[in-house]
Every structure is written in structure tokens, then in C-alpha cells.
Amino acid sequence: MARETLIDWLGMRTDSKRIVVALGGNAILRSKELSSYGEQFENVRRTCRQIVQLIAEGYQPIFTHGNGPQVGNLLIQNEAAAQLVPAVPLDVCGAETQGQIGYMIQQTLRNELRERGLSRPVASVVTQVLVDADDPAFAQPVKPIGPFLPRGVAEERMRDKRESWTQIDARGWRKLVPSPQPVGIVEVDIIHALLDGGAVVVACGGGGVPVLRRPDGRLQGVEAVVDKDLAAARLALELHAETLLILTDVPGVAVNFGKATQRFLRRLTVTELEDLLVQEPFSAGSMGPKVRAAYRFVHDGGGQATICALEDALAGVRGDAGTVIVPDGTMQLPFHAPGQRG
């Protein structure tokens, strides 16, 4: 197109296959790296090169992403500047980082698309995610956030502000906040409209901004963190996406991880995965949320969920890489080691 604007695309419903792509933290900030924006931009470029392949093959990705390090930095800045400016609430920190990371993805993806001779509008949506005020998570905060602080400071805040804190390790104490289940995407109609207009959309960053709907219909932000993979599954269901693609830094889901009997799972039905979840203690801080999000998507009516390495994104969508979860009654493949194909 001579002039690339969203208006050029409105009214032109896309026939691309919609997939929700959940980017792991390594897509933005890899382990052992500093949190400089130069490094973050370079990692986003690496990620976008993979995603462009999906677009070139006719898929329409909707991005979600993590924001843990970025929110952590804002909370550290809150602490350091407490005597100078008012602290920024956690829900606002989440919204800020959606804009920050969305900007990096928007700019980088447009540049990568241009290099491939492809033209697509890219838009980020600051997304609010509905949670239930009666969710049991609000009675038992478990998600650590923010800087490590001394025991004395933590005890003072537990006493004076009735906050929840826990000692993590020798580095100190961290604040705990609830992690409620996502029950709805507030901006889903806006996201639908952008997708129908042919746009590539970034949404639900960091799990979205958790909000409560009051009895009078008003929305209100709440100090909590929604798991980003569960939010991606909720988004994929509400958008009627064909596939939930969870990209990470390992080839797939392994049972007996780190042991001599470790094996990677190739393809499972949703019932097989349900049985496995009873037996296998997947790490809550690593693979556990990804596996549960994949299960939730397929169990609640989604088509296919794939957990795979970033570099296997296209093969993962096709079902040729990673761990693939499908509805019951779908043809099965045996277990394989990473790199093998069924």
C-alpha cells in the first residue's frame, strides 16, 4: 500500500487464522542480562523475526507478553523516590508497562514486516482483565512483587499497612499480592474490531490490569497480578482463536524434569493432560502456569494449545514441534525426544 494506515484496512475482514501468541519473559529479557532497554529491544527484534514467519504464512497473531522485570523496576523506583513523589499503584504500573512493551513490539514488528515486504497495521491495547471479588486468591496472597527489603521494613508494613510479606531467601523479604483467575477481557470488542480490520494486536500484557466490576457497573483497579498465561488462554477463548501458542525457552513440556527419567511430551489429549496434572508437580514458577493455561484453553472449547521454544514457533503452530494439547478424540502421536518428529 502506498499509504499505510489503519483506515486502509477497516472494513476489510481478514481471512487469516487467528492465534494467540503468549511470549515468555525470555522474549524480552533473557536470563543473566541487565534490564537495559537496548537489550530488551534486541530480544524483541529476535522474537519478531519469528513472528513475521507466522504472518507470512497467513496467520494473524495476537500477542500477549510478560512484564515482571519491568513492573519490578517501577516498584523499585517507587521505593527509591518515596520521599519525593507519590508511589504509583500496582494496577497503574501494569498499565504503564503494557504501553512500554507494546511500543517496543509495535515498532520492531512494523520494521521487520517492512523488511519482508509485508504491510500490516500493529496496535497495542492497554487491556483490563476482569477478576472476581470473591476469588479465594484475595484471602491468600501468594505472588511476590517488588524489591527485596529488610525484615524490619516488612514487619512495619505488615503492621501499619496490613500488607502481606514473606522472606524469600538471604536477599530479604518481598511483598505478596493476590493472583486471581481471569474471568473476562474488558476490551475484547475493541480487539475484535482491530483484528477484523487486519491489524496485528498486542493485548493483555503482563496478564492485563486486574479490575473488579462494582454492583453499579463501575470498574475499579485492584492490587493483584493475573497470571499472564491464564490471561492469554482467556483472551484466546474470547477471540475464538484457533490456537494458543505459548513460547518459552525449552523444547516443550517434560515429565520428571531434570532427572534421568526425564522425557518430553509430544502430543496429548486434554483428558490425558488432566490425568497428568494430578500426578506431575509442574513448577508453579516455571512450566506449571503454562501447562494449566494450555489445559484451560482446550478444555473450555479451544482447538489446539502448543508449548514450544521460540525458534519453533511456526512448526509449533502446525503441530510439528513442542508439546501439543488437543481435544479428546483427536489422533494421537507417541512421545518423542526434542527434535524428533512423529
Brief summary:
The chain is α/β, with parallel strands linked by helices.
CATH class of the largest domain: Alpha Beta
Q: Strand order of the main beta sheet, please?
A: 3-9-2-1-12-16-17-15
Report the total helices: 10
Sheet/helix structural class? alpha/beta
Beta-strand proportion: 15-25%
Mean pLDDT rating: 87
Percent range for helical residues? Answer: 25-40%
Query: How many strands, which pairing sense, and closed or not: the largest β-sheet?
Result: 8 strands, mixed
CATH superfamily of the largest domain, by name, is: Acetylglutamate kinase-like
Please give a structural write-up.
With 342 residues, the protein is of the alpha/beta class. The chain has two domains: 6-131 and 184-326, Carbamate kinase (3-Layer(aba) Sandwich); 141-177, no CATH class. The chain has helices at residues 6-9, 37-56, 68-80, 90-115, 151-160, 188-196, 228-238, 270-279, 287-299, 313-317, and strands spanning 17-23, 59-65, 122-124, 128-130, 143-149, 164-169, 172-177, 184-185, 200-202, 209-213, 219-221, 243-248, 254-255, 263-264, 267-269, 304-309, 323-326. The strands form four sheets. Strands 3-9-2-1-12-16-17-15 form an eight-stranded mixed β-sheet, sandwiched between helices. Strand 13 (254-255) and strand 14 (263-264) form a beta hairpin. Helix 3 (68-80) crosses helix 4 (90-115). The longest helix is centred in the first third of the chain and has 26 residues, at 90-115. Mean pLDDT is 87; it is low at 1-14 and 333-342.
